[in-house]
Design brief:
Elements lengths: L21 H10 L11 H17 L6 E4 L6 H12 L3 E5 L6 H9 L6 E5 L6 H13 L1 E6 L6 E6 L4 E6 L7 H4 L4 E4 L5 H15 L2 E2 L1 H9 L5 H18 L3 E2 L1 H10 L9 H13 L7 H8 L3 H14 L3 E4 L2 E4 L1 H6 L5 H5 L1 H10 L1
Parallel strand pairs: 1-6, 1-7, 2-3, 3-6, 8-9
Antiparallel strand pairs: 4-5, 10-11
The protein binds adenosine-5'-triphosphate (ATP).
Adenosine-5'-triphosphate binds next to helix 1, helix 3 and helix 9.
Length: 357
């Protein structure tokens, strides 16, 4: 398990979910940076990609295949569109789960134009036969289309125009090495620093025509869990609040009060995250406690606690997964304004005190 597992379980109505919801999909097109210059943060990936694209352009060649790895909402789709725009090429967007049969992939590949960018999101979720077809397509710009079944089946080779595959994955480690090796460039997307998210918020506010001051943007950035998609979503909710309850201007106070209404705390924890932490601290004295027990205590499924709430709590250094169970860190006690049992009354007595509290 790692911090990227958050999207595997549906997260209905979660303001801090890193995956896109219907409203995001509609608004995101308007907020997407259109070129590398506008793309905030990810310095390393940006610089490296800039070189890859410029070199290909100078040679008059199609850019090498690019693999982008990183958590949801960090800008992989955005970067793939930028790659196409910088190369002056059209882009086709699809995803691993949409390609269940090799034939689905053959149909897409055979209709690509020369130089086109094919964006394959969640590439680690493609079916095996499709994946094998992709190996040959990436390396030789050729696929073998199998016609017929059983002993009479024949492979008809099909030439493809050169294209650039941009694969996106939340789990680079899950990609089979032969697939990984066929990418000329791999960019690892990191979570964004608060200052970078501030820039994202300012930029989006400008595009949405919302007035926001520096402290207001910092307040939203600090609660956005290192993720631009969440920053943009929180900004839209804060904008609603500013419009209805304030004078339309987003200040620190307006942002803070609005996000309190939406139950997103100063560190970006939402109701579920806090419920897990509170149970761990108040009911189990900070642990160690087993995952199932913790899940029952918060009235959620085991998987929801493990895959939806925990990755962020672990990333934030608030919770640790140990062989003996889940354990709260000193930062967790501090965040919820509680005193750890040892400090409260010393050793076992402190524990007892908490259970009794
Ligand atoms: N570096 C950035 N600068 C400004 N805005 C960004 C940046 N990265 C992402 N965004 C914004 O965040 C939103 C989500 O980005 P995007 O869809 O590219 O993420 P993703 O990594 O492809 O997510 P998923 O894996 O869930 O599809 C978009 O609205 C985009 O405009």
């Amino acid at each position: 398990m790692n911090g990227y597992d958050e999207t595997d379980i549906p997260e209905p109505d979660r303001l801090v979910a890193p995956g896109a919801d219907g409203e995001d999909t509609a608004v995101e097109a308007a907020l997407r940076p259109k070129d590398l210059g506008e793309f905030v943060g990810q310095e390393k990936v940006r610089q490296q990609l800039d070189l890859v694209l410029k070199a290909a352009k100078q040679r008059g060649a199609t850019a090498d295949h690019v693999l982008l790895s990183g958590a949801p909402g960090l800008g992989k789709t955005t970067l793939s569109m930028i790659i196409a725009a910088e190369m002056g090429a059209p882009i086709r967007i699809t995803s691993g789960p949409a390609i269940q049969h090799a034939g689905d992939l053959a149909a897409i590949l055979s209709s690509l134009q020369e130089g086109e960018v094919l964006f394959l999101d969640e590439i680690h979720r493609m079916s095996r036969p499709a994946e094998e077809m992709l190996y040959m397509a990436m390396e030789d710009f050729r696929v073998d289309v199998i016609v017929g079944k059983g002993p009479g089946a024949t492979a008809i080779p099909l030439e493809l125009p050169p294209f650039t595959l941009v694969g996106a994955t939340t789990r680079a480690g899950l990609l089979p090495p032969p697939l990984r090796d066929r990418f000329g460039f791999t960019g690892h997307m990191e979570f964004y620093a608060p200052e970078e998210l501030e820039r994202v918020v300012h930029r989006s506010a400008r595009l949405l025509d919302v007035e926001i001051d520096t402290a207001g943007a910092a307040e939203i950035a600090g609660r956005s869990r290192g993720t631009p998609r969440i920053a943009n979503r929180l900004l839209r909710r804060v904008r609603d609040y500013a419009q209805v309850r304030a004078d339309g201007v987003i200040t620190r106070e307006v942002a803070g009060t609005a996000l309190q209404v939406y139950e997103v705390d100063a560190r970006g924890l939402d109701r579920l995250d806090r419920a897990v932490l509170e149970a761990l601290l108040k009911l189990f004295g900070g642990g160690p406690v087993g995952l199932s027990t913790l899940a029952v205590a918060v009235g959620e499924e085991r998987e929801t606690v493990e895959e939806v709430a925990e990755p962020f709590l672990v990333r934030e250094g608030l919770l640790a997964r140990t062989p003996r169970g889940r354990v709260a860190t000193p930062a967790a006690w501090a965040h919820l304004g509680l005193v750890p049992p040892q400090q409260a009354g010393g050793g076992p007595r402190g524990q007892q005190g908490l259970f009794g509290a």
